[in-house]
Amino acid sequence: MLLHLGQDTVVNTKDIVAICDLDTSTVSHKTRDFLASATKKGQVVNVSMELPKSFVIVESGGKTTVYISQLSSSTLMKRAESNQYLF
Fold this sequence. Notes:
Layout: E1 2-6, E2 9-12, E3 16-21, H1 22-25, H2 29-40, E4 44-46, E5 54-60, E6 63-69, H3 73-82
C-alpha cells in the first residue's frame, strides 16, 4: 500500500522505517546529527510547503530517503494503520 505524505508524494508502507515528530525527536543530538548527515548526502526530500511537523525515513532498494512533511506524525500513523488516504 502507498501512503500519501503531502504534496504529490507517496511511499510504499512496507519501505517505511520510521515516522517521527520533528519537534520532539530533534531534541536529541543524535537525531539532529542524523538529519544533518542525510541532508549533506542529498537524502532529504522536503514535501512540505508549510511549517514541517514530521519526517519519515524510507529505505527502498538499499537507498535511504528522509521525507520532511507538513503532516503530523500522528496523522501519518493513523493513515498508515487505518489504510485511510492510502493509494
